Amino acid sequence: MQKGVQRTVGIVSVFILLFLSIGVLVYSGLWIWMDARTYETFSKWLVIHQTFAAGIVGALTMLLGISIAWWQLSSVRRTRYAELLLHLSQVWDSNHYVESRNLIDNITREVSRGDEAKVKLCEKLEKSDKEGERDYFVLIRTPNFFEALAFLVRRKYIPLSDTRDYFGQAIVYYHDLFSTHISQERRKSGHEKTYELWSGLADKLRRR
């Protein structure tokens, strides 16, 4: 919340600076136009008011520099978002995570009702964890991926809107499937930290 407020204040400050600069330039332009009419030529006015004219040019240069810097910063941020989302999409489609999703599908495929699928998946996770089976580590890849993704969204590394477009349905679908397992792990640990970020992100997406 504090970071969001700081970002808003920063954006508002930049726009205030731009509007003030534009206002000063417009006022100065009108003053120059009215004052310059008292001289025979504009070149004579420039000779007499060299310092003031240089200040106007400097202000224009600063205004142009701020505009270019703002545009470049926005462009770099958009490029970074796109590259990170592309990388995450490639990771999600890799064999490492395809294996996890296939195993989840095999466990829940024959179950007709949603609650039964959640319970069956939870039981499989508990059993494979106790017995040290490889299936546990394969299954847990999917919730771990979404918890990491939720962390990136929370830290503003990727926008929520783009995350919704790329992964929204999968985030909500798999969170629903793992909800029984998450609740059970929270009861065991005695706190709500288990997949807390993923749960928060899924709730946000459900409300949209």
What's the short version?
The protein is an all-alpha fold and about 210 residues long. Helix content is about 85%, strand content about 0%. The chain has helices at about 1-35, 40-50, 50-90, 95-110, 115-130, 135-140, 140-155, 160-190, 195-205.
Characterise this structure.
- With 208 residues, the protein is mainly alpha-helical.
- It has 2 domains: 2-79; 93-207, no CATH class.
- The chain is 86% helix and 0% strand.
- The chain is built from 9 helices and no strands.
- It has helices at residues 2-36, 42-48, 50-92, 95-108, 114-130, 134-139, 141-154, 160-189, 196-207.
- Helix 1 (2-36) packs antiparallel against helix 3, helix 7 crosses helix 8 (160-189) and helix 7 crosses helix 9 (196-207).
The tally of strands reads 0
Low-confidence stretches: 1-6
Number of helices: 9
- Beta-strand content: under 5%
> Radius of gyration in whole Å, from Cα?
29 Å
> What is the number of domains?
2
Helix % is: over 70%
Biggest sheet layout: none
Q: Class by helix and strand content?
A: mainly alpha
| Overall pLDDT level | 77
What is the helix/strand order?
HHHHHHHHH
The dominant shape is: elongated
**Beginning-to-end CA distance, first to last residue:** 19 Å
